[in-house]
UniProtKB/TrEMBL annotation:
Protein name (database record): Putative TM nitroreductase
GO MF entries: oxidoreductase activity
InterPro entries tied to this protein: Nitroreductase-like (IPR000415), Nitroreductase/BluB (IPR050627)
PANTHER family for the chain: NAD(P)H NITROREDUCTASE RV3131-RELATED, NADPH NITROREDUCTASE
Top-level taxonomic group: Bacteria
Organism: Dysgonomonas macrotermitis
NCBIfam families, alphabetized: Rv3131_FMN_oxido (NF047509)
Length: 344
């Protein structure tokens, strides 16, 4: 009788433990799925995840780098920082307390996850699946001061700075001129254009084959056979055409948002990504639209010039430039299957 009771107890504990492990596994997958909703340059989705018993590691996928436009992988690690923030937000939503460790030598991020009943859920978790980069022309409506105040109250990590620039500010025109000059440099660089073209998905077949990159939908184009669409796209990769499009988009927007860092280092790139993602999720919550215009930050000669010549950011590293405003929802970019980004 005692042996039977002992066996039943062991079996019961085994079943409970199995259920708990299954729940943790499902929770960790939900966190990783949230992490993969982060933005990335050319929608490369340059992350890999290693699941441990009580932690998740985020590693760079060096097969998805952009050696021309992102020579030092700065934008890649900003994306990993954004993925980290999404993962932590979802962790708290599921009742876990996340502790983040960044390793400068291995350039990896580890999130230790401890279950707790005293975790306050982060409402931004509801925005993770809704957030999107909207590259369309906006409706020219100005974002009200009270909404801007909410955005400006979003926390920043140490060494990260954010500037909100209105059209009335002379810096707005200055930044617009830097975007124009950035296009002139990038659109006259064959290597840049080749890299961009490699990440364009011009029809349904290409999207299904490779769910990364910029799809025809987010670019506002029809789905056409590559033999037809690729020559058309190439013909538009010219400075004058890009500037005409970007100027129209800038003028339809309400404000520029410029992010800078004190140091141009791995740690601050990750911290910038985390600060950025919370800001973008709040933009989503407030029903605003945003898009990146990083050309002057990506071209080193322009970035160096801005660092010296723009008094507001002198000595800081200009890293990300956004425009914000109001616009109807745009198509969403596809994502890799979650199983393809988890290391076995």
């Amino acid at each position: 009788m005692k042996k039977t009771l002992l066996y039943i107890s062991i079996l019961t504990l085994s079943i409970i433990q199995g259920k708990m492990e299954a729940q943790v596994n499902n929770d960790f997958k939900a966190m990783i799925e949230a992490a993969t909703k982060a933005p990335s340059g050319h929608n490369t989705q340059p992350w890999l995840f290693k699941v441990n018993q009580s932690s998740i590691e985020i590693l760079p996928n060096l097969a998805d780098t952009l050696p021309v436009v992102d020579k030092n992988n700065r934008e890649l690690f900003i994306s990993l920082g954004a993925a980290t923030e999404n993962l932590c937000i979802m962790a708290s939503h599921l009742g876990y307390y996340p502790t983040i460790k960044t390793d400068d030598k291995t350039q990896t991020i580890t999130i230790e996850l401890g279950k707790s009943n005293n975790i306050q859920k982060d409402d931004l978790a509801l925005q993770i699946a809704k957030r999107q980069t909207n590259r369309n022309v906006y409706d020219e409506k100005v974002v009200p001061k009270d909404i801007l105040s909410i955005l400006e109250n979003q926390t920043l990590h140490e060494g990260i700075y954010r500037y909100t620039i209105s059209k009335e500010d002379s810096l707005f025109s200055t930044l617009k001129s830097y975007v124009v000059r950035g296009n002139e440099i990038q659109m006259n660089d064959d290597a840049f254009k080749d890299e961009l073209l490699r990440y364009m998905r011009l029809n349904n077949k290409e999207v299904e084959k490779n769910p990364t990159g910029l799809t025809y939908k987010v670019m506002g184009a029809p789905s056409l056979p590559a033999i037809i669409s690729r020559p058309i796209v190439k013909s538009y990769l010219k400075a004058d055409k890009q500037n005409k499009s970007d100027i129209r988009k800038i003028e339809s927007s309400s404000h520029f948002i410029l992010f800078t860092t004190e140091n141009d280092t791995f740690i601050q790139w990750v911290d910038l990504g985390r600060s950025l993602e919370r800001y973008l999720l709040k933009i989503s919550e407030l029903n605003l639209a945003y898009a990146f215009l990083n050309q002057p930050c990506e071209v080193k000669s322009l970035s160096d010039e801005m660092q010296k010549e723009v008094p507001l950011i002198r000595g800081q590293h200009p890293t990300l430039l956004l425009r914000i405003g109001y616009a109807p929802k745009a198509p969403y970019s596809p994502r890799k299957n979650i199983e393809d980004v988890i290391l076995k």
